[in-house]
Amino acid sequence: MEVTKQAHKAHVLVFPFIGQGHVNPMLQFSKRLASKGIKPTLITAQYIFKSMQTTTIQTQFGPSIQIRSISDGYDDDGGNHPESIAAYLDSLRVNGAKSLAQLIMKLNEEGDPVQAIIYDGFLPWALDVAKQFGLVAGLFFTQSCTVNSIYYHVQRGLIQLPLTGPDSIKVSVPGAPELHPLEAPSFVHTYGSYPFWFDVILGQFFNIDQADWVLCNIFYDMEKEVVDWMAKLWKVRTIGPTVPSYYLDKRLEDDTDYGLHLLKPDTTLCKNWLDSKPKGSVAYVSFGSAVELFEEQFQELAWGLKNSQINFLWVVRESEQAKLPVGIIDENSRQGLVVGWASQLEVLAHEATGCFVTHCGFNSVLEALSLGVSVVGVPQWTDQGTNAKFVEDIWGVGVKAKVDDKGIVQRKQLEECIREVMEGENSEEIKNNLSKWKKLAKEAVDEGGSSDKNIDEFVAYLAES
Ligand code: UDP
């Protein structure tokens, strides 16, 4: 009987864009699907596949999630060799589409046919491959609905770029608060910069009307009205937060990490150091997987942290470590610890952590909201400024640091912001808001919660199709 049941499991390819902020939520979504009887296969580029610690992955997922690779055209060295990001993205599109089609045929031959592809919005060509094979196509958004709605409005010519006129011009989409141009995603307010990324983000909407599902990594309460508006256009469902169960509903007790770090985390070092610090005393600082800070900004952050005398745990990726000024970390790492990569969820969940100084990448914000950690937003580019606006003004879970006329957050400002969220006048209100959001996040993924029901609906659809 068991064999028959297995044979009927729907097989879904889950295909994130290459980047930690894309792999994490889509891998976590795969785990949710697996817990509901779906058979997910995560797709990565070959160079990531080769460098993955496969033992970790097997331990983490057991046989429930397969991982297969496709070619991006740079199978030995990944993104290191193409002459530009634009060249890499082009190669990924051309080689990836071909290789994805070959993989689907191979899986068919192996007796493991695929029913659906859930593809990252940054990889819209995967929809064409899905349609070529008559598969269900589910678009997965890793950014907020407001940000996606703004991009949609730009792509359809409903917001005209460049934004011109006086400062009073607002960026406005249905259901979302009006935004000052500088609160809109950077590709919108600095129109013309990073043209290849601009193509990627607008590219999400060229064929969206053909997607069978649009899955958003938020929970409904975060952006109700925007979701309702988007749901008039497409079959939109909120399925987040895709934070490992252990931190939310405890449904899967051993689900304590996303499970696929592209950089190796210093887990034990962080834990031992945090264990030695008093409750709520540490500012955790991280700018995610991709931001490269300007030298001046880096210096201001470093001295702001040092001068504050507040304990800090700072993730500085190896590629950024040359910017660290001498004297920031004392020999015994008493006040501060710098690591190349952390297990972020473990740090956020640790009782010593008192706030999160972040670039406001969408996953980081969602994790802070779901785990109840107050935020100091130091956004740099892409959607981060919009996320920081929501952190401060809409969700009320932190503050956005002010920049000077060169766009730099000065050391004093950083120190003030950290103090404000940890012990300032508004810190109680921020904590109350955090308790509310944490509860709502948990309720959304709990059995029968809004996101859980939406995933059930998707699973039932696959069972019938
Ligand atoms: N992350 C991590 N360790 C770190 C820094 C980040 O595990 O030291 C994870 C973090 O939990 C999040 C992802 O990497 O899930 C970063 O995604 P985000 O959208 O916040 O930023 P991006 O890297 O895409 O700019």
TrEMBL record:
Recorded coiled-coil stretches: none
Listed Pfam families: UDPGT
Keyword set includes Transferase: yes
Keywords of the record: Glycosyltransferase, Transferase
Taxonomic superkingdom: Eukaryota
GO MF terms, alphabetically ordered: quercetin 3-O-glucosyltransferase activity; quercetin 7-O-glucosyltransferase activity
Family note: Belongs to the UDP-glycosyltransferase family.
Name recorded for this polypeptide: Glycosyltransferase
Species of provenance: Chenopodium quinoa
